[in-house]
């Protein structure tokens, strides 16, 4: 059990014990006629048991703060004022123990509201781990022609390491021998492997999909790509600005206003109505104290945090996990939504967009699918999808796959080349100019160009409507992606994204994001990959696509969309707005009711404080009901 939970349990125990003791003083001691001082002592003990920390914080802020009038000061003044009413002639037989019980309820309801607030703002951001699929657990070090398994953190610049198929590259370095396809998804977020050969750089945290590499380490472990990403996540979490609690901001204004009005009420009327008459002073001082008690914002203190708590519950009903109530405030002032492309705006997998044969379409598709049928490359799987490879298995011979180029084989008496432009050019096949944007797989049959298949990452069906709705809400959209510029611009243009920046590594994404932060409007970032974690953490509000997102992205996000549906972003904004409106309603309604009670206390002689107590409690219950009702609000998606 962590310290926060322990502290919350202790507070609940204090509330139960204090309430029991106060009820004892209210009903039994009053009935038994033990005397007002016994009753006062019991109530004071109950009050201190529940509110000693409030009194301490109020005293500390009075000494150390420039503006000490926070919610703790208001609670202390209101409850002490309730005790003081006894000194100004309240009827000893009045229910609630001469306002002693009112003094207790002031701090009791405040602490109760504080518990609601803690529940609503609990966070689970302890998520920077070493084993989220980004950091290699071991490295194969070559020493004296021997392979030795070592901890990656022990590698030094100049060390020679070997990387085998399926392994995570443990350090940044230069390939000295070998070639292969490298999955860069952990850095760029793009699922299309990149072919690397001798002399090229490789990054820690990427995965070798084909081939074998010998790599010379050129960066220390602390300076490697993977370590920098994890460091960025840690640093960006520290730079995220934390919104002040609403109640604190409210009390900084409300408390001195109430106190000032109370002082004016106690002093000014007697100056005109009878400066030398003690009864006049007594009457107006008593009303000033009553005003402070009536003005105690218990309804606001309880209902506002509960409104945010209900907002979090409403979001969860829609498959949206909001990790703290403060993020609703940021969402309500959202001005820019920055998003990743692959897996966020798109499905994150290749699909054949179009076939462009030079001859018979059926034979073209058969030849190309047969050529790709033995490959595990994502492009090959997309081309073969929905077809039965066993139909061609017996017709294939002399098959070979050249990493980074494509496949070479004989099929049904024909010599096939299937791959990129480099493969066909290397074999003397001329390829016409192709203007299509996307990933191209070219086919040559018996030395002649036979056409191409165009593949692209499919755009999510709801993406375009989501971007359009965000624009209607006055929110600007920006795409930051590691994909090629032409692919990114195609997607951005189709969706209507305001600004597109492509071919970015995680540190470049984070640098680009920084240019939008720190302005009047809040900035949100939406992503799903490990590479998005630093940006998710750095933004005012970080969204993660929970269904397909990486653990690191989800752990570091402020809002997790569990169904990978982009329309949920709009839904979360609507819920944030509804939550804000409900909280404002609670504040306005509570202040209106309290103003009405204060006017009654002013104009009705001997206005019983009991009515003010019940009105205050009734207002609290009414505002709580209004907040809880938010859970049933219908949100149109």
Short characterization:
The protein has 637 residues and is α+β, with helices and mostly antiparallel strands. Among the domains are: 139-233, Calcium-transporting ATPase, cytoplasmic transduction domain A (Distorted Sandwich); 311-346 and 459-574, HAD superfamily/HAD-like (Rossmann fold, 3-Layer(aba) Sandwich), CATH 3.40.50.1000; 348-458, Calcium-transporting ATPase, cytoplasmic domain N (3-Layer(aba) Sandwich). It is built from 20 helices and 21 strands.
Task: Give a written overview of the molecule.
The chain has 637 residues and is α+β, with helices and mostly antiparallel strands. Among the domains are: 139-233, Distorted Sandwich (Calcium-transporting ATPase, cytoplasmic transduction domain A); 311-346 and 459-574, HAD superfamily/HAD-like (Rossmann fold); 348-458, 3-Layer(aba) Sandwich (Calcium-transporting ATPase, cytoplasmic domain N), CATH 3.40.1110.10. It contains 20 helices and 21 strands. The strands form three sheets. Strands 1, 2, 3, 4, 5, 6, 7 and 8 form an eight-stranded antiparallel β-sheet that branches. It is elongated. The model is unreliable at 90-98, 120-133 and 232-244 (pLDDT under 50).
Low-confidence sequence ranges: 90-98, 120-133, 232-244
The biggest sheet amounts to: 8 strands, antiparallel
Q: Give the number of helices.
A: 20
In CATH, the homologous superfamily of the domain at 311-346 and 459-574 goes by the name HAD superfamily/HAD-like
Overall pLDDT confidence: 79
The CATH architecture assignment of the domain at 311-346 and 459-574 turns out to be 3-Layer(aba) Sandwich
Strand content: 15-25%
| CATH class call of the domain at 311-346 and 459-574 | Alpha Beta
The CATH topology of the domain at 311-346 and 459-574: Rossmann fold
User: How would you describe the oligomerization state of the chains in this entry?
Assistant: single chain
Structural class: alpha+beta
**Global geometry:** elongated
Helix content: 40-55%
Distance between the termini: 38 Å
């Amino acid at each position: 059990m962590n310290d926060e939970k322990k502290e919350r349990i202790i507070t609940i125990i204090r509330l139960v014990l204090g309430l029991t003791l106060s009820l004892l003083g209210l009903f039994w001691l009053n009935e038994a006629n033990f005397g007002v001082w016994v009753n006062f002592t019991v109530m004071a003990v109950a009050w201190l048991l529940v509110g000693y920390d409030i009194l301490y914080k109020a005293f500390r802020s009075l000494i150390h703060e420039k503006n000490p009038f926070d919610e703790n000061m208001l609670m202390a003044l209101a409850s002490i004022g309730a005790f003081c009413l006894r000194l100004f002639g309240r009827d000893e037989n009045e229910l609630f123990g001469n306002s002693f019980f009112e003094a207790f309820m002031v701090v009791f309801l405040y602490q109760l509201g504080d518990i609601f607030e803690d529940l609503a703002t609990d966070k689970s951001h302890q998520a920077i781990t070493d084993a989220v699929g980004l950091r290699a657990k071991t490295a194969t070090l070559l020493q004296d022609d021997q392979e030795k398994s070592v901890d990656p953190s022990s590698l030094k610049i100049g060390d020679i390491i070997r990387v085998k198929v399926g392994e995570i590259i443990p350090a940044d370095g230069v390939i000295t021998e070998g070639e292969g396809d490298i999955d860069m998804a952990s850095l760029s977020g793009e699922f299309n492997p990149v072919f690397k050969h001798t002399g090229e750089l490789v990054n820690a945290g990427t995965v070798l999909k084909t081939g074998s590499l010998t790599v010379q380490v050129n960066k220390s472990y602390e300076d490697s790509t993977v370590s920098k990403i994890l460091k960025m996540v840690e640093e960006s979490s520290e730079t995220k600005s934390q919104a002040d609690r609403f109640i604190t901001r409210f009390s900084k204004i409300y408390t001195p206003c109430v106190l000032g009005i109370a002082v004016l009420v106690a002093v000014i009327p007697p100056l005109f109505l009878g400066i030398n008459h003690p009864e006049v002073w007594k009457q107006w001082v008593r009303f000033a104290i009553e005003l402070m008690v009536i003005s105690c914002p218990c309804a606001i203190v309880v209902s506002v945090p509960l409104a945010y708590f209900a907002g979090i519950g409403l979001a969860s009903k829609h498959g949206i996990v909001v990790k703290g109530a403060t993020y609703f405030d940021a969402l309500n002032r959202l001005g820019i939504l920055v998003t990743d492309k692959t897996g966020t705006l798109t499905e994150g997998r290749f699909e054949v967009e179009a076939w462009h044969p030079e001859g018979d379409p059926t034979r073209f598709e058969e030849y190309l699918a047969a050529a790709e049928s033995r490959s595990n490359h994502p492009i090959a799987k997309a081309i073969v999808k929905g077809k039965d490879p066993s139909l061609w298995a017996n017709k294939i011979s002399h098959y070979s796959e050249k990493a980074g180029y494509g496949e070479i084989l004989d099929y049904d008496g024909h010599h096939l080349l299937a791959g990129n432009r480099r493969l066909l050019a290397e074999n003397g096949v001329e390829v016409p100019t192709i203007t299509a944007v996307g990933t191209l797989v070219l086919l040559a049959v018996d030395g002649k160009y036979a056409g191409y298949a165009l593949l692209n990452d499919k755009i999510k069906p709801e993406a375009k409507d989501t971007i359009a709705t965000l624009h209607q809400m006055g929110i600007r959209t920006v795409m930051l992606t590691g994909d090629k510029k032409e692919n990114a611009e195609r997607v951005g243009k189709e969706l209507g994204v305001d600004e597109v920046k492509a071919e970015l590594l995680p540190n470049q994404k984070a640098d680009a994001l920084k240019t939008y932060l720190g302005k009047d409007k809040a900035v949100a970032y939406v992503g799903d990959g490990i590479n998005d974690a630093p940006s998710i953490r750095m933004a005012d509000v970080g969204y993660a696509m929970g269904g397909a997102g990486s653990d690191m992205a989800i752990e570091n996000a402020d809002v997790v969309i569990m169904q990978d549906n982009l329309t949920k972003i709009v839904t979360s904004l609507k819920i944030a707005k509804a939550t804000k409106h409900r909280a404002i309603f609670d504040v306005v309604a509570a202040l209106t009711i309290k103003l009405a009670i204060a006017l009654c206390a002013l104009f009705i002689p001997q206005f019983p404080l009991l009515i003010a107590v019940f009105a205050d409690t009734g207002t609290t219950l009414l505002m709580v009901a209004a907040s809880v009702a938010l859970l049933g609000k219908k949100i149109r998606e």
